[in-house]
Each structure stands twice: as structure tokens, then as C-alpha cells.
């Protein structure tokens, strides 16, 4: 599995061409909710006095999503903002802070961050969870299930995903693997034992 | 102009510069995560060529 990174850690990461020119820095991370895939990034200019750029970075133009920089082939791969997100979508599509509901109607908390892989897939969500029965608050990582629905009001996840939570990113990697194996096995009808744990 | 008049001019210029920087920083709002729905522009159940 690829290295996991929080979307908030991508913000302000420099966008650098393979010639070594830093052309921008990441502002927003945009992802396709149903597909669970990053579609691109909106950009800020470099420097104190530069505002948002009238260009965006579509995911197919990303050469590498590195630990310290996002690499692109050249400045020419940058596209118009609508190639990544339309202005209406940007206004109503914010995910951070929205309520997390399971498909069984249980309130699982609120979204703190989105966990992405280096290949652009959304692995899951960092959630301020509400622990039953005492309703204590706790930060956990929940894998993204298939058919996840997300809007500016709520994120709806499969209830089964809540049985594969983790407390930190390293252990979350294993939980995501188990969850995906479990879902794939369910798709083929085969049984699979996972290391289930819930909050 | 009396000498402290230049102080007022300098102060106003500094204020204008600070406002410009603040404006730019506001436009450079903190990044966020945005969810979009690609391939579902026509709603659930849409079939290309119309529902039959």
C-alpha cells in the first residue's frame, strides 16, 4: 500500500517542475467523493504578496506526490480552475467539519481530515468520533467504503467501515488493507477473517 | 509643511500597505478539502440516450 498522508498536510506544499522551478503551492485538495480519487488541486502563488492563482493542477498532470513537494512536468500542465472544481462546487463541497453518518443512520462524529495515498486514492477519513455509550469524543481514522456519499452537509459511510477504525496512520494502513480485502471477498462471495475493532 | 505632516503621510502609507497585505492574505485563505461528484451530473438513474 502507498504511504498515507493527511490532505491538510498537502496544503502549502510547493508545486515544482522537473526543471526545478517552484511555480505554485497547494491550496485546496479536491476529490471525487463517489470514486474516492483526488481530481486535482487549487493553487496559491508563491510569495507573500501573491494571491490565489487562476490556474489549477489536475491530478493526471501530477508527476509525483512527494513528501516535500508535488512534482509536475512543467508549467504548461496547469489548467483553468474549472478543470478541477467549479466555483459552485467549491462553495458547497467543503468536507472538513461535516457530520459523518453511517448508512444505518448512526452519527459517527465529524470529519477532521481526509487521508490520501500517494497514488491519489482516498484511503479514509480522520474523524472526531463520538464513542458510545458515554458519547466521549476521540480522534480515529475510518476507512473509506465503496459507495461513500459526501456533500457539504454530511459524509455517509458504510456502517461496516466503523469496525475497522485505527488510532494513528501507521495502524490505519493495516486496517485499510484488511477492510479492502474484506470488501473484495464479499464481492466474490468468499469469507475473510479481519482484525475487526470498533470504538 | 510642518515637520510632523510627513509623519502623518508615512503613517497613512503604512496603513495602506498593511491593508493591501491583509487583503492578499485573506484571498490566500487556508486550504481545505473539497468533495465533488464526477460522473453524476445528471442525478441517480440517468441513462445516456434517455430512460426507457
Automatic annotation (TrEMBL), chain A:
Entry-linked Gene3D superfamilies: PRC-barrel domain
InterPro entries assigned: PRC-brl_dom, PRC_barrel-like_sf
Pfam families found in the cross-reference section: PRC
Domain PRC-barrel: 5-72, 96-158
Protein name (record): Sporulation protein YlmC with PRC-barrel domain
From TrEMBL, chain B:
UniProt name for this protein: Uncharacterized protein
Domain of life: Bacteria
Organism from which the protein derives: Streptomyces netropsis (Streptoverticillium netropsis)
